[in-house]
Amino acid sequence: EDEERQHDEL
Amino acid sequence: MNLFRLAGDVSHLLAIIILLLKIWRTRSCAGISGKSQILFALVFTTRYLDLLTTFISFYNTTMKVIYIGCSYATVWMIYAKFKATYDSNHDTFRMEFLVIPIAALSLLVNHDFAPLEILWTFSIYLESVAILPQLFMVSKTGEAETITSHYLFALGLYRALYLMNWIWRFFAEGFFDLIAIVAGLVQTILYCDFFYLYITKVLKGKKLSLPA
Predict the structure, then answer these.
(1) B12–A10 C-beta distance less than 8 A
(2) HEC secondary structure over B2-51
(3) DSSP designation for B114
(4) A2 at the B interface (CB within 8 A)?
(5) How do residues B70-86 score in pLDDT, each as one tens digit?
(6) Which residues cross the membrane (chain B) (predicted)?
């Protein structure tokens, strides 16, 4: 996967 | 956002504020491990670097900024402002014993071998054990002030609530992040002994003291 991973939690 | 996650975040925020207020109002950081607070500052710094690259939500950004700010303020109070009250003789846990193996582990076990991702992984692993110097200090002195116990309880509860959030998200969204879940489990387990003492002693109005 090319897209940067998003961490939506704190 | 579900209720468990929100409650977890609030509990986390409450813990940080309880600690800040305790130190500020008593003008003393006695009984507080500066090393745990340095580790938490490191956790927030390495995890929230995405503030510079990704915008998730106003809520997300605000909370991250508050966590980082409070964390550095706490470290500053312990090592500068109220340094004279810092109990360094009892804060003897060696941080490198945690940081170095965790740095190695985050290089080996991560979702993606990219700088930000490795730092995020490092912060997740480090957070799970960052409280150890504080717990070590409590066990060494055999006691903790009641306000310190409230701090530890709120801080432990936060990850336990996140575990519920992850169960919720797994069923509701099919979302799961194994690194966060395993580290969160380890983190919560480390607090279990303390939870037991908190419920059986502190909630009944007694000071938290360990049997000699």
Answers:
(1) yes
(2) CHHHHHHHHHHHHHHHHHHHHHHHHCCCCCCCHHHHHHHHHHHHHHHHHH
(3) S
(4) no
(5) 999 999 999 999 999 99
(6) 65-82, 119-138, 150-168, 174-199
